[in-house]
Amino acid sequence: MDTVTTRLCIVGGGPAGMMAGLLFARAGIDVTVLEKHADFLRDFRGDTIHPSTLDLMDELGFTERFRALPQRRVENFSGVVNGRSYRVADFSRLPTRNRFLSFMPQWDFLDFLAGEAGRYPAFRLIRRTEAQDLIETEGRIAGVRAAGPGGSVEIRSDLVLCADGRHSRMRERAGFAPRAFGAPIDVLWFRLPRRDGDPEAAAGRFGPGRILITLDRGDEWQCAYVVPKGGDAALRAQGLAAFRTLVAEIAPFLADRTGAIADWDDVKLLTVTVDRLERWHRPGLLCIGDAAHAMSPVGGVGINLAIQDAVAAANLLTGPLRDGRLVEADLARVQARRMFPVRVTQALQRMIQSRVIAASLAADAPFRAPLALRLLDALPRLQVLPARMIGMGVRPEHVRAPLRA
After folding, report:
1. Is there a single domain that holds both residue 53 and residue 144?
2. Which residue(s) pair with 74 in the sheet?
């Protein structure tokens, strides 16, 4: 069995893992990231880059290279109820340098982070290698056992950072079980062609018994059709033609292109989960991102919280890791800083799920737009509030970890 020794082992090459790997390597910490796949090409992952993340790209000196990547800018978001559009979020009013959302395929974003991290000799990305179990020595986690193309490998480290998603195997191996809050919805993702003259770049369309989110991806729309929890099977049983009709009814401008949904393989189910760990750490181990808190797709903020976790971890743990004095109290400081934003965000998401989304799905006749939508549309200055929650979050982080040559 091969053995790799590193200061920090990160399990998972998603947004949290890659951002953490970049920041720690930039600070001179020897870091190894394990990614079980050969590449980052995963369909229908979160493609939203928020203003707070765009500000981080500027802080890291990546502005010119990052903006050269193909992406779409969105400065506002609307809700459409019974065909009437209500402007609900205006990102151009944010007190940030980047006053817009950017949409790009997540694999492009992760490839970019991996390329920037690869500039630092302290960074190592091992692909096609999946963490299988934790190594425990004298009551602390001392690394992971993994399987790769060449067989088994042990990664020995001072700290294991679990960033392997909402179904985290390392979280389970550590003995952690998240507290689940339930969610009344699931989401069906699919794509349709976008044409000149189509309406708003990003909108949520509400009608009796159905909701459709449309996100501008340049030459196509990424669409999220919201169904009641467990409603996927019943919808599919009605047949593909009936599903195309439902989409056309709630978004008439798409009626002439629903045939692009050729079969059910083009429609991917996202089972919505909202949960969080009450304790994110053990001696030698810390969970961040979805491994610590699975977010609802409401607002598309899960990727933003994951990246903010990574920044906070690098800010607070770089010194102790470099000096060889890392203790569990340092890990607890990361959780203490990030738990408040998670709790507030999940509470807001659950409120929107129950009072707006579930109510719309339960309606069997046209209904009036919620008061909040009407107020936001009538008072544009208020539109900065949802824009701030989506685009910046409760406690946006900034890069504090030092740069080491």
Report:
1. yes
2. 101
Closest C-alpha among 117, 159, 161, 155 to residue 323: 159
Distance of alpha carbon 398 from alpha carbon 390, whole angstroms: 17
Instruction: Classify residue 26 by its DSSP letter.
Output: H
Query: Does any domain span residue 404?
Result: no
Contact, 65 vs 240, CB < 8 A? no
Residues 6+ apart with CB under 8 A from 49: 71, 101, 102, 103, 104, 109, 303
pLDDT of residue 105: 87
User: What single-letter amino acid sits at 197?
Assistant: G
Least confident window among 62-66, 193-197, 290-294:
193-197
Name the nearest CA neighbour of 286 among 36, 30, 20, 37: 20
Number of folded domains that form the chain: 2
Same domain, 71 and 128: yes
pTM higher than 0.90 for the full model? yes
Query: The domain containing residue 208 runs over which residues?
Result: 185-228+230-270
Contact 159, 280 (CB under 8 A): no
What three-state secondary structure class fits 250?
helix
Is residue 243 assigned to a domain? Answer: yes
**Quick one: 132 and 28 in the same domain?**
yes
Q: What is the CATH number of the domain that holds 366?
A: 3.50.50.60
Of 245, 270, 295, the one marking the end of a domain is 270
Q: Are residues 11 and 65 in the same domain?
A: yes
Q: How many whole angstroms separate alpha carbon 151 and alpha carbon 147?
A: 6
| Confidence band for 38, pLDDT divided at 50, 70 and 90 | confident
54 pLDDT band, cuts 50/70/90, is very high
Mean pLDDT of 150-168: 95
Same domain, 98 and 193: no
Is the confidence at residue 39, as pLDDT, over 60?
Answer: yes
- Does residue 396 belong to any structural domain of this protein? no
Q: Each residue of 102-148: pLDDT tens digit? A: 988 899 999 999 999 999 999 999 999 999 999 999 999 999 999 99
